[in-house]
Amino acid sequence: AGRLWWTLSYLGHDATYILDGGLAAWEAASLPTAASPAVVEAGDFTARPDPGQRIQLASVDRLVASCQQGACGAVLWDTREPREYDGATPYGEARGGHLPGAVSLHYAALLDADGRLRPEPELRQLLQAVGIVPDQQVVPYCTGGVRSAFATAVLVELGYGQVTHYDGSMWEWAADPQRPLE
Hints:
Blueprint: H1 2-10, H2 22-28, H3 57-68, E1 75-78, H4 82-85, E2 103-104, H5 120-129, E3 138-141, H6 147-157, H7 169-173
Parallel strand pairs: 1-2, 1-3
Helix pairs in contact: 1-6
């Protein structure tokens, strides 16, 4: 859901949402479901990509270089599991580890036991504890841009104004053996 939200938002759709708690929450609320797809009329949406929502490889290269020199201009947020941050490659990355200078906070930590977002004060506390604050650029990434897209949606919902999703993530970064990893 996060990746679909981010893609639609990036393409300029102005009414994108994620159902808090997903289908399980919908069903728990006894809302209607259907076994067959709905018939809908074609719309007139015209894609208008917003490059400000996406950071590309060359810009990530520059950020990592500045982080390695002790002057990181953004928070690189690794949204993967701690084992992935530490080097495990369960999803086919070419190499393990994380971007130099990245902070680790698994995206699932943003959810409660029912799969719903934690209350806003808890979210802000979790994010701040690893250095993710509203007045700084934040670059979420994961393996292929799925978990980090959800994290991006959460930051946008919380009003973080400088969020640029690295959708290429570790599949792109780790594919080049010349790019540094920690």
